[in-house]
Amino acid sequence: MSKRGLITDDNIDKVLFDRLQVLDLSMCHVSDACLFKLSNSRHNYLRKVDLNSAKDSNESITSAGLTSLSRACPNLQILYLRRCINITDSGVISISENCPFLVELNIGGCPRITDATLISLGQNCRYLRSFNFSKSEVTDCGVLSLVSGTCATCLKEIHMNGCANLTDESVEAVIQFCPQISILLFHGCPHITEHARNALEELMRAESSAVKQITWTVY
């Protein structure tokens, strides 16, 4: 049903069962109402929730829904929220505080996300390996708080494309604090310069480097 986009707020109950581990709603048009129903009971086995908006932006999922989800799914490890444009810091902070085993998080294309989210993730999510916060309002301060936080040695993949507030300091912070980083993407960041590229080239020449993919746009 989910792959055909047939799950809705009205029939979500049909796919919810006690030992559900993966819930993929990326092809479905759902709202907070769906997440409220999910939170009516505790889902200790649920590990992955995919709410990526596959086509257009999703305006119907907000931080209220995320807060409910976080309280119902304490063992959540993977959460995809790409282009859920009405999500704010409060919802993702609830996830970081209530889902300590989070490994992958995609909030790319969520323009209302700020440094507060990254600060909270850095404080609470020590197992975070992959994080996409592209096209957000994050600044260097948020990136520094994230990469110098509890997840510093776990982070392997960071996507920060289209973040207009970032500078070379963010790239340098990732290099300094994240020894396992293997994928770092920062296209469309107009304040990141040639200086960052030079630092990255040194990283890639290092024998201990784990880098697999680094792509960027230099202005």
TrEMBL record:
SUPFAM superfamilies named in the record: RNI-like
Domain of life: Eukaryota
InterPro entries membership: FBXL15_LRR, Leu-rich_rpt_Cys-con_subtyp, LRR_dom_sf
Record GO biological process: SCF-dependent proteasomal ubiquitin-dependent protein catabolic process
Pfam families, per database record: DUF7885 (PF25372)
Signal peptide positions on this chain: none
F-box/LRR-repeat protein 15-like leucin rich repeat domain segment(s): 29-203
GO cellular component, one term: SCF ubiquitin ligase complex
Membership in a protein family: Belongs to the AMN1 family.
UniProt protein name: Protein AMN1 homolog
